[in-house]
Amino acid sequence: MNLSDQARRLQERGIRPTPQRLAVYDYLLTHRTHPTADAIFEALSPQYPSFSRTTIYNSVKALMDAGLVRVVTIDPSEQHFDGDPLDHGHCRCEQCGRLFDFEMPDGLLAPLIPEGFTVNRQDIFFSGLCQDCR
Amino acid sequence: MNLSDQARRLQERGIRPTPQRLAVYDYLLTHRTHPTADAIFEALSPQYPSFSRTTIYNSVKALMDAGLVRVVTIDPSEQHFDGDPLDHGHCRCEQCGRLFDFEMPDGLLAPLIPEGFTVNRQDIFFSGLCQDCR
DNA sequence: ATATAATATTGTAATCATTACAAATTTACA
DNA sequence: TGTAAATTTGTAATGATTACAATATTATAT
């Protein structure tokens, strides 16, 4: 997917494809590390010196409202962002702090939903030790 | 389970059963609302005027280290605490903010664990609308 | 093309949950 | 009982996130 594809996607979702939003979105799509707002800022700062931290938060928020990005709340002290809005699980290594994706079979969790509750989103988190840190 | 049972349980887990810790633990066991640190503080303050907010954090931390309490990180802005350390899922109503427990069948998630990852804890979160708010 | 209104960016300041720290208190143990 | 260790507690610091207002950019109508 090239930049104009991404721009089109933002437009389809009803938000303007500004350079800032495109840069943040592209970063999230090409770096599947689930970066924090600060990590995105540090990474993009050299290339876009005008960016402010607030711009990162604003862009991420716009992308989340558009349904293109989701927040991963596995870390109590910081929010991580994920360019893949489809349902999948996350592992967090308690040693190195890295986040990993894993596949989630469709419908696996459906039987767990309590009577009367309407689910808008679901998350599965594993915390533990990754292969490298064991 | 009465207070002396709870005290014994703290002792077994290697932490001193101080009045503050017992009050926090008892509150979490009798109020399954997954309160925040602030909510616990507000609730216990009248009865224990000497309590400080820091005491709540300290007590909760001691209880977590002892494995009697766990933190629920479903809410990006605040941590919620849970007196049930056994694996179970959590629903969060986006309207009223309440958290609900649900059962989690043993072993359901085991097939999802990525190759080489050692799981210390697992969480399942649903976000959506509860029965009352629909 | 231009003017005007709506939207987005950005720097600074405020907020607020959480943590650090140190003094005072309580408890365990010799 | 005395002394060392652990705990509580109030205040101050931290740090991620949000609020806000001024500036800049973009869309739309004329």
Summed up, the helix count of chain A is 4
CATH architecture of the largest domain in chain A: Orthogonal Bundle
Structurally, the number of domains of chain A stands at: 2
Largest interface: A-B, 38 and 38 residues
Choose one word for the global shape of chain A.
Answer: globular
- The oligomerization state is homodimer
Task: Determine the CATH superfamily of the largest domain in chain A.
Answer: Winged helix-like DNA-binding domain superfamily/Winged helix DNA-binding domain
Structural class by SSE content of chain A: alpha+beta
Please count the beta strands of chain A (DSSP E, at least 2 residues each). Answer: 5
What is the CATH domain class of the largest domain in chain A?
Answer: Mainly Alpha
Mean pLDDT figure of chain A = 94
Listing every helix as H and every strand as E from the N terminus to the C terminus, the arrangement of chain A reads: HHHHEEEEE
Distance between the termini of chain A: 36 Å
Per DSSP, what share of the residues of chain A sits in E-state strands of 2 or more residues?
Answer: 15-25%
Biggest sheet of chain A, open or closed, and with what strands and sense? 3 strands, mixed
Radius of gyration of chain A: 16 Å
The helix content of chain A, as a percent range, equals: 25-40%
The CATH topology name of the largest domain in chain A reads Arc Repressor Mutant, subunit A
Strand numbers in spatial order across the main sheet of chain A: 4-3-5
Structural features, described:
The structure is a homodimer of 134-residue chains. By secondary structure, chain A is of the alpha+beta class. Chain A folds into two domains: 3-69, Winged helix-like DNA-binding domain superfamily/Winged helix DNA-binding domain (Arc Repressor Mutant, subunit A, Orthogonal Bundle); 86-128, Dna Ligase, domain 1. Chain A has four helices and five strands; from the N terminus they run ααααβββββ. In chain A, the strands form two sheets. In chain A, strands 4-3-5 form a three-stranded mixed beta sheet, with no helix packed on it. In chain A, strands 1-2 form a two-stranded antiparallel sheet. In chain A, strand 3 (89-93) and strand 4 form a beta hairpin. In chain A, helix 2 packs across helix 4 (53-65) and helix 3 (37-44) crosses helix 4 (53-65). The radius of gyration of chain A is 16 Å and the shape is globular. The model of chain A has no long low-confidence stretch (mean pLDDT 94). The A-B interface holds A 71, 73-76, 79, 89, 91, 93-94, 100, 102-105, 108-109, 112-131, 134 and B 71, 73-76, 79, 89, 91, 93-94, 100, 102-105, 108-109, 112-131, 134. Chain A binds a DNA duplex (30 and 30 nucleotides) through helix 4.
